[in-house]
């Protein structure tokens, strides 16, 4: 018994049950049923990963707030890398944040990804080999092995076939996978992050590495994946893009371009400027907007165009 057997069972069980639900609409041996069953697996996994996504967002925003302190530590210990790392780790621990939190959703999906890869890889063997729920199910195995996505069997790979159709479909899925990864990361950097100094900025450097590295990894490794795995990863990338777009649009990071844009829209609806709207919610800002809170607090503001009349101090009469 393999340590991954429970994962094989879970992945194949979800896919088979979605296939059974879709069979009355598309047929038992339809490639649409099996392809949409893989999409169903993505939906289940991504719903389960929502708490991790929330943690990722919180950690990213905490790191953004810590940027001034991080920069101060990097400047203070610029000649001592070890001490710099120790102080940064102490800072992360103190504020309960993790610079690698942005990778959590991807790392959490890795076991599911490999389990699905093994299940689909077994379908491409002669004869097809079943894992999990599919083990011993001759009819289901034959149905899944013959299922096609735009004419390409879902168990075939780019390097393992001579079929032109399979190669074209695989290239299209790899291109879509890489493009959605790039645009998702770029969307976060351009709209979802506050403007920061790029010099010695670990968070920004990490985001830039992810922007270019992940699409390249998908493009290079994608030729080894079965079509069904490429369907899974393309769908999960699309989910990530949509989920991030919603968060940036509805609940952007304070200080980011998306946040400023949202504040402007809210102010326009109220018929006021952003400063006036912020002053309405913050008494301190209200004083600055209204001309109060200055060194001459309590004095009546002078009006332009009017001559200020000197005030005479009237002497109080002493009572006899």
Please mark out the parts with pLDDT under 50 across 5 or more consecutive residues, or reply none: 292-308
State the share of residues found in helices, binned by percent.
55-70%
Number of helical regions: 13
Query: How large is the radius of gyration?
Result: 30 Å
The N- and C-terminal alpha carbons lie at a distance of: 111 Å
Sheet of most strands: 2 strands, antiparallel
Describe this structure in words.
By secondary structure, the protein is mainly alpha-helical. Strands 1-2 form a two-stranded antiparallel ribbon. It is elongated and about 70 Å long. It starts with a helix and ends in a 31-residue tail after the last helix.
Question: Secondary-structure map with pairings?
Answer:
Blueprint: H1 5-26, H2 31-48, H3 50-65, H4 67-76, H5 81-94, H6 104-123, H7 138-146, E1 148-149, E2 152-153, H8 164-191, H9 202-221, H10 227-250, H11 257-270, H12 274-281, H13 283-289
Helix pairs in contact: 1-2, 1-6, 2-10, 4-5, 6-10, 8-9, 8-10, 12-13
């Amino acid at each position: 018994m393999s340590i991954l057997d429970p994962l094989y069972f879970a992945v194949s069980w979800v896919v088979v049950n979605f296939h059974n639900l879709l069979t009355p609409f598309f047929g038992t041996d339809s490639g649409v049923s099996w392809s949409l069953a893989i999409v169903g697996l993505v939906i289940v996994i991504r719903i389960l990963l929502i708490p991790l996504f929330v943690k990722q967002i919180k950690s990213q925003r905490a790191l953004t707030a810590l940027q001034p302190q991080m920069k101060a530590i990097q400047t203070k210990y610029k000649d001592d890398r070890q001490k710099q790392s120790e102080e940064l780790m102490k800072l992360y621990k103190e504020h309960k944040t993790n610079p690698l939190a942005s990778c959590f959703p991807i790392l959490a999906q890795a076991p599911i990804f490999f389990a699905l890869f093994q299940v689909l890889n077994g379908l491409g063997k002669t004869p097809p080999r079943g894992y999990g729920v599919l083990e011993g199910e001759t009819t289901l195995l034959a149905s899944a092995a013959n299922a096609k996505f735009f004419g390409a069997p879902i168990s075939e790979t780019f390097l393992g076939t001579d079929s032109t159709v399979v190669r074209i479909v695989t290239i299209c899925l790899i291109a879509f996978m890489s493009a959605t990864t790039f645009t998702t990361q770029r969307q976060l950097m351009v709209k979802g992050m506050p403007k920061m100094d790029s010099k010695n900025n670990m968070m920004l450097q990490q985001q830039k590495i992810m922007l270019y590295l992940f699409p390249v990894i998908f493009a290079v490794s994608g030729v080894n994946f079965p079509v069904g795995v490429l369907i899974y990863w393309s769908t999960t990338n699309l989910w990530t893009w949509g989920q991030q777009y919603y968060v940036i649009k509805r609940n952007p990071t304070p200080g980011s371009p998306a946040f400023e844009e949202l504040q402007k829209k809210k102010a326009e609806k109220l018929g006021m400027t952003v400063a006036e709207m912020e002053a309405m919610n913050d008494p301190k800002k209200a004083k600055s907007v209204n001309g109060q809170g200055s060194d001459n607090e309590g004095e009546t503001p002078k009006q332009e165009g009017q001559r200020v009349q000197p005030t005479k101090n009237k002497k109080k009469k002493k009572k006899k």
